[in-house]
Each structure stands twice: as structure tokens, then as C-alpha cells.
Here is the input.
Amino acid sequence: MGAGRSRERRWGAVVSGGGKRARLHRSGLFVPGHLPDWVPKAVRSGADMLILDLEDSVPVTEKARARGLVRESLEALAAEGQDRSVRINALETRLALDDLEAIVCPALQAVRLPKVESADDLRELDALLTHLEMRAGMEPGTVATPLDLETAGAMRNAYDILRASPRATSMMLGCGPGGDAARAVGYQWMKDGTETHYLRSRAVLDARAAGIEYPLVTSWWDIPDLDGLRADAALNRRFGFRGMVVMHPSHVPIVNEAFTPDEAELAHARGLIAAMEAAERDGNAAVTYEGHMVDYAMVTTARELLDLAASIDARSGG
Here is the structure.
């Protein structure tokens, strides 16, 4: 294990199985940083995480003003207990340092860096954050740096980047229409997602292999097509994603529902565990349950599903 992996930090301590601690987010919602009036509506949407944006959704003429507004929004959201992160401008724009100097404060949970190509990009961000955290009186390593996959380089090297960057406790794949990812890879977006099946599968595999428990994806930007969103969310969950980042508040409830285990799933998991426990009492290590052979590995999966549901209940106060 390299030196970066051995350090225990509040945002990315190594846990059993090589995982990194991160909070479950079924839904993330982008909010333009120069439009603070949109923040209360975003909170009311029920999004598990808000992403205050200083990059693509902010006009060049508004970027300087947006920094102060985002700092104010961070502090207000922290007081409400709303999970929050900020997407800054890419390093090559020469705006990133100004962004960071304005927003690094105890209310900042995570910084999302666009256009990452390799681990070196997150190492540079780590160095800047460490300096600014210390200057702000914060423990170095407080701020996480999720890896957003939107370049061919990042998609190709995701596993290595995540393993080399202990601040990268979560990951989001971008595979929507017409954006950076589409341009980088060259795919033509389709509503059924066929053209990005490989990208989705590989992103989940790399994330889980690197210890990321809750990979995210942003793949649906068609605001009025809610039925299409439901289908896309179901597809993403089947691939192994644990949540989606969306562009409009109307999408949040649908995504939250899609990534929350329903009662039928939970009942199946409880029944499977009970059947296995009964088999153990009879001296068996496997049993047939609802027509399928069940063993200890399936019990572990069932318990993880119940734990996931419990964490969602705890988040919502249920």
C-alpha cells in the first residue's frame, strides 16, 4: 500500500475491504453558483447532495461574483444539514485557485474538479487544498475530491486515479448527451443508453475495485421526459450505480425512488436470511429459497441491501 493509501483522513479513511468512507447519495442536483435564489428550491427537491457550480453553468462575466455567493450558500446549507459540494473551474483555465481561495471553509465538504485526465490532476488539487485548509484553520484532508469521469483519459484510468487519490472517496461517470464525455469519446447519445453500456459497466467495476461503495452517474438531461428518466435510473441501478446526478429539481424524487430498495426487495432479503438461518440450525450451509439455491454469499448481499435501506431511513429521519 502506498503512502497516500495508508494515511487515515476524515474524508477517506481506509475501511474494511479496502473501501473508503463516503456518505450515500442517491441523488445529486446541480445549482448554478451565480443564482443563489435557486438554492432553496434545490433543497426542497429532496436531493441528497447539492453541487454548487462555478464551471459550465456560470457565465464568464459572473464567475468572480459567483464565488462569494457560493461561499454564502455553503454556510447556509451547512447550517441546514444539507450535503454539499462545489464544482470549480478546470486547472487549465487559471480560475481554479481563485475559486478555491473563495470557497475553502469549514462548510465545504467536497470539491469537484472538471476535466481530470490522470492522478496528477487530483494530486495538484490535493496540494492546493492542503495549503488552504491549513490557512483556514481546518484539518488537512477535510475536503474530499470526488472523481468525475468526463474525459477519455479519466475513463481509461479511473481505477489508478482512485487508488492514488485518498481524497477521492466517491466517483461520478458523465455519459449524457452532447457534453464533455460525449465529445471526448465520440458516442452518439441514445435514450436506451446502448452506446454507453460499456462505459457504465467499466466505471462501476473500476470504482468498486478501488473501494468506492457508492458510484454515481449523470446520464439523463431530458427535463420533460420523466418516463425516460425512470427507465434510465432503473438501468443505472442494474449496472451497480447507487445514485444519479441530475439537472432539474423535478428529477430528484424519481431518482430517489429508483435508488431506494422497495418493500418487495426488502421482504425478499429478510426471507432469504431467515431461510438460511433455519438451514444453519439444521446443519446445512445452503438452502433453496423461492426456487433458487442460497448460500452464505447471497446472505451477505441480502444483509447489505437491508443496511443500505437502513442508511436511507436514517438520512430521511424514517
Remarks:
- The beta strands are 27-32, 49-53, 83-87, 111-112, 147-149, 171-174, 216-218, 243-246, 287-289, 292-294.
- Confidence is low (pLDDT under 50) at residues 1-18.
- Residues 3-260 form a domain with the TIM Barrel fold (CATH 3.20.20.60).
- Residues 296-316 form the longest helix (21 residues).
